[in-house]
Amino acid sequence: QVHLVESGGGLVQTGGSLWLSCAASGRTFGTYVMGWYRQAPGKEREFVASINSSGRSTSYADSVKGRFTVSRDNAKNMAYLQMNSLKPEDAAIYYCNVGGTYWGQGTQVTVSS
Length: 113
Hints:
Number of helices: 0
Order of helices and strands: EEEEEEEEEEE
Radius of gyration: 13 Å
Helix content: under 10%
């Protein structure tokens, strides 16, 4: 069982940056692939980025490549999403996911134009 809590969301202007965190409980966090997803109002939840268990391999949605960076610290049971050059279309609730199974409650990101 893994419990996830996201934080770091907020209101930012277009072009600004935010740093999201995902705190995980459970001693097996470091064995899972970890992903970030987002869901905007009226839209399906979509993949944003993922990182493998060791942190050596990452993957990004085309829409965020070059602007977002996913990372993790297994010693601290933490995962992060650095978001730069934010656009209004990045506004959504951002969720972290572990192992394709466990979800956090989400953190709201709002981008003003």
